[in-house]
Amino acid sequence: MPRSYDNAVPPVGALLRRYDGPGEPLTCEPVTQGLLNRGYRLATTRGAYFLKHHLDGDPEAIARQHRATRLLEALGVPVAPAVADAGGDTVAVIGGHCYALHPWVDGRHRDGAHLSTLESHRLGALLGLVHNGLEQVMSHQDQRPGGRTGTWAPPPEYQRGPLAGLPGHQRGARERPPGHHQEPRNGGPGGRGGPGGRPEPCGPCALRTETGGPYALRTESRGRPDGRAESGGAYESADPRETFSLIDELLALIRAAGPRDSFDLLAEHRLLERRTMLELHADLRPPAASAGGWVHGDFHPLNLLYRGAEPAAIVDWDRLGVQPRAEEAVRAAAIFFVRPEGALELPKVRAYARAYRHAVGADTSELDAAVHRVWWERLNDFWILRWRYQRHDRRADPQFAAVSALAVWWTREYEAVREAFAN
Fold it and tell me: What is the pTM of this model?
């Protein structure tokens, strides 16, 4: 009999009766619970399968994901397409819940610490293969208004790259407007300094020009938390005013919760720290990106299985959608290659990014824009704290220390990160 999984037992018998070949059920064991769905290892008299309970429950969207992965497999993308039942359907709706059966893939997860520089290069090429493949296969089922397809195109202000306004990128030589943030370099955090040890502005401050530059605050824009396009096909960035309100709300929840543990203390520290950072950098909010391409939507180590040194399957396509593609590349690298202390392994990032750029034909301006937008996203993102304090869900707590430290490190090392992705 299947074992209880959060008091929910999948209807294995009713499910398998829909299929011609899986055999009789033997065991159904829950695997590590994800944040979006529930999964089980289903053993039958004829083999092993991955049984997925889709908590979203949108059969049409799930079927679209299944069609996409089947077509991607034909293009050489390592995936594990859903098994079709006797009627040709890949989504089973039983008792109002959606289920899908996939072949079981024996493999293991590998993050950036387990990848060599060469393997990091291959990871970037793999994501490029995914994006190129999606551009091809989704042209047959593109659901964007007007059926538009195509790749991401940077807005005009990105054409020369976000640092082009600073001659030779000699940031320390510029006259700084009043109030600009500075960080000591020689002997200070970051370990770099200008001539004579004088302080240089932090990386994001170097983007500013006297007129505000391309990243001036757009007060009329309101970002969506899921990063999706709003009216007119624009992909808005986070509004710092909303972030300030969220920070205040989270701080109030932490302080009203009674005795605080080490996580609460760290969370409070990071919230106060981030509020200061946003006050310093609020005028660097990036403009909306005007177009996007189809992306996996959740490309990270737990959604990629390796068999030995070879990628065996990219799984969990629940967030398949249209977004600026290069942002997924940057976002994925920030997960794969982050160290426990919050720094990125930049040599591996560089190898990964070069392979990705070559695979999709992305230019420097596209990666420049993506790095800036994802950096801004990280400054404004508190999803782990929202899960803990608003939803009382602590499954993501172990990720918080590295994720929150990354935003601080990335701000300090902004130029080095940009160079690793774009050059």
Answer: 0.79
